[in-house]
UniProtKB/TrEMBL annotation:
It comes from Mammaliicoccus sciuri (Staphylococcus sciuri). Gene3D superfamilies: P-loop containing nucleotide triphosphate hydrolases. This is Kinase. It comes from the Bacteria. Transmembrane segments: none annotated.
Length: 162
């Protein structure tokens, strides 16, 4: 049975860093589904592109073919919530995390990135506070938790042994 890790939060919160580090640590048979990669690189970033549909398809693939699946992105509840709940509500081996941190902290973290590509105005337009999915055992990540501590927490939650 596939173990699913869902990592959500606002732009600049640390989702992608956590997801990539988890994929590196878990290794073989780990599918990483990154909303930004799909939305901006695989599909041209424009209104009404088919990001939700492609993520839905990739989730089905991952559930059938992978030991671990990491799904990460802003994944706003109003747009992605129904699709994610369809796959994962009431299911075992689903570990959901939401970075619930302040706008100021997301802005600070984004400015510290090597490729800080967005400004305060864009990030403000995208920011949604407390955008929970409501899945069972959804865990809230606050801004004081380090990346390394979060990686270890997730690996412990999924009972991963290196």
């Amino acid at each position: 049975m596939t173990k699913v890790i869902i990592i959500r939060g606002n732009s600049g919160s640390g989702k992608s860093s956590l997801a990539k580090e988890l994929q590196n640590r878990i290794g073989f048979q780990t599918l990483l589904i990154s909303q930004d990669t799909i939305r901006r690189e695989m599909l041209y970033d424009k209104p009404d592109n088919k990001t939700v549909e492609l993520i839905d398809y990739l989730i089905r693939y991952g559930l059938e073919n992978c030991d671990y699946m990491i799904i990460e992105g802003i994944l706003k509840e109003h747009r992605y919530g129904d699709m994610l709940r369809k796959h994962f509500a009431g299911k075992k081996n689903v570990f959901t995390y939401y970075y619930d941190i302040s706008f100021e902290e997301t802005l600070r973290r984004h400015k510290n990135k090597k490729n800080a590509e967005f400004g305060k105005e864009e990030m403000s337009n995208w920011f949604v506070a407390h955008d929970y999915l409501g899945l069972e055992n959804e865990k809230i990540i606050k801004e004081h938790i380090s990346l390394n501590d979060m990686v270890e927490k997730v690996l412990e939650d999924i009972n991963f042994k290196e």
